Amino acid sequence: MKKTVVLLVSTLMLGVSASAMADSNRWNNDHKDRYDQRYDRYDHRHDHREQPRWSNGDRGNHYGQRINFKRGERLPSEFRSNRYMVSNYRYHRLYQPPRGYNWMQVQGKYVLVDSKYRIFRVA
């Protein structure tokens, strides 16, 4: 009788431990899935977040959009004032502009434009 009780108790203990192991295994799988999903967002981030203000990620765009000047295009209207006109072109190591043309200094570049503000040369 003593052997039967020991066998019954050991079987019961084995069943409880097996169910506890199965339950813990399920928790580990769920935890692993949550862990993987948490780091999946770094693969393709399409949430259109902006750079933090303290970051240098957008350095160079603080003062507006940078413009690429090309020959034949017109100078944008915000740069068509005398403020951007270069009067002392030799000081800036530029050649004398032809009649009807002017040198303009825009965003750190020198642009030769005609009277209708069409770009002739970018230096």
What share of the residues does DSSP label as strand, in percent?
5-15%
| Low-confidence regions | none
Give the N-terminus to C-terminus distance in angstroms: 104 Å
Write down the overall mean pLDDT.
76
Q: Indicate the structural class.
A: alpha+beta
Count of distinct strands: 3
Description:
With 123 residues, this protein is α+β, with helices and mostly antiparallel strands. The chain has a domain of 50 residues. Helix content is 32%, strand content 11%. The protein contains one helix and three strands; from the N terminus they run H-E-E-E.
List the helices and strands and how they pair.
Layout: H1 2-40, E1 102-106, E2 109-113, E3 119-122
Antiparallel strand pairs: 1-2, 2-3
What's this model, at a glance?
The protein has 123 residues and is α+β, with helices and mostly antiparallel strands. The chain has one helix spanning 2-40; strands spanning 102-106, 109-113, 119-122.
